[in-house]
Amino acid sequence: MSLxxxxxxxxxxxxxxxxxxxxxxxxxxxxxxxxxxxxQLNEVNTDNVEPLASVTGHGLPMRKDEVTDGAYPERVxxxxxxxxxxxxxxxxxxx
Amino acid sequence: xxxxxxxxxxxxxxxLKAKKITSVELTEAYIGAMEEGKGLNAFxxxxxxxxxxMAKASDAKLAKGEGGAMEGLPIGMKDLFCTKxxxxxxxxxxxxGFKPEYESTVSQNLWDAGAVMLGKLxxxxxxxxxxxxTSYYGNVENPWRRSGGGNQKLVPGGSSGGSAxxxxxxLAIAATGTDTGGSIRQPASFCGIxxxxxxYGRCSRWGIVAFAxxxxxxxPITRNVQDAALMLGAMAGHDPKDSxxxxxxxxxxxxxxxxxxxGMKIGIPKExxxxxxPEEIDALWKRGAEMLKDAGAEIVDISLPHTKYxxxxxxxxxxxxxSSNLARYDGVRYxxxxxxxxxxxxxxxxxxxxxxxEVKRRVLIGTYVLSAGYYDAYYLKAQKVxxxxxxxxxxxxxxxDAILTPTAPSxxxxxxxxxxxxxxxxxxxxFTVPASLAGIPGISVPVGLSEDGLPLGLQLLGKPFDEETVxxxxxxLEQAAGFDAKPAFLAGSK
Lengths: 95, 494
Hints:
The complex is a heterodimer of chains A (95) and B (494).
Chain A: H1 5-14, H2 21-38, H3 73-77, E1 83-84, E2 87-88
Antiparallel strand pairs in A: 1-2
Chain B: H1 2-6, H2 9-17, H3 23-36, E1 43-46, H4 48-63, E2 74-78, H5 105-112, E3 116-121, H6 161-168, E4 175-179, H7 185-191, E5 194-197, E6 217-222, H8 225-235, E7 265-269, H9 279-294, E8 298-302, H10 310-325, H11 343-354, H12 357-370, H13 375-396, E9 402-406, H14 422-426, H15 433-438, E10 442-449, E11 455-462, H16 467-481
Parallel strand pairs in B: 2-3, 7-8, 7-9
Antiparallel strand pairs in B: 1-3, 4-6, 5-6, 5-10, 9-11, 10-11
Helix pairs in contact in B: 3-4, 6-7, 8-16, 10-12, 10-13
């Protein structure tokens, strides 16, 4: 399976990374190189193998559903590039 | 000054407890060393004033016969750990100006144990790299030079390159690292020091800038194995804020260093003898096995049949998790923002300007393998092979107590080498990645020098949560190897 420029442009848009034409050319080569490398996994028979998502060997710990943290908006917003009236500010979304 | 810098972490601990030295003296020596070693570019942020305050507080405790396991010991913190009020960058432009409002659990554990912070150490951007050449804050230089090879600058390995260079060149008495596919062990090997990745779940990941959450683990980078045992004990422990943190007591790791490996079984996996591996690495590996045999261990040939599939598995799973973790850098909540005509343009411009080339490559690969229609073929397939890789180790540990391998397929290379092709760089981690995927503990111990006078490490792997065996065997290997070569740059040696 090999990626073409249009597909890489689509992936870059999905990942929300602006890429110009020259960058796309370089990325097509790099990404195909990496995908070619990982395709050797197709040699491995994985019939009846359960996928491994976690190596911890323990389940997720549970606790009571209650508020344990919060109520410090100043600290939450302290690193925001732009803020207004106690909220994060972003470019206008709805006209 | 140089006598103070000569002390290892555990030697300095003993000298502080015995009131032969003070933390202020020791810390001043390292502040001077940081100044002397600026050329290595090991630190992104230096915090000498904070270090002086912490040292003074430690001396007050030590004077009363109080203090924790790391009381008064000046260490460097990889700049992937969030430190309250201190710039935290992950070596990325996208975290410009980010000063966390909270402290990572591992760094908090170290401060609670009395450690003193010298500053934040350079790394590959978001810990993605094996040579510390992807940092927005510039390359880190290895304190070692090839013998007779001119004065060519070498990489320290990565991603914990600043940590390894700082400990090797004595700009810090020890440092934290994080290891996702080899980022503690490989730089330790390149810089002639000890690096330990504990079992996944031994150290909390809370407050560590996330790269690949099912693989990331924190660990110590130190001058010797006993130092690693001390520091790991201070870093580790259960943390309710990390759901993957293991609810297990932390053993006294130093007590495990008995020097006795008689009757222990050490596995030599035949699949780690790779085509094109330099003869000197193979020879070093055989020497290491001989040393353990002479100490009374039994050497057992084993097989880890899926080893060759570890790297391709890793290069699906790690970028997939990274693409998801790095979605949070959107120019809204922290760090860099590049304006755009719309919200989406703002996201795209911010991420284009904020991420470096290697990070972009991995985010894009990760986005692709997780995208509709490709998930099963790539991500699910990789998770299945990961299960087989883990089973390889489970089977092997039915026969042996620990496994000995080389740490890396080469010694440190020059800045600029291996940069033409991402895959070539990825191959650096061929011996370290399998243990990361299986979540098992591993340590790199310096054992010898390459033909051109550069350090080479061997790696010991253990069973899950059996760091004690890894440390015990690593200590015996270290004693037998007697590695005492010194880098070209060593602070305080002039």
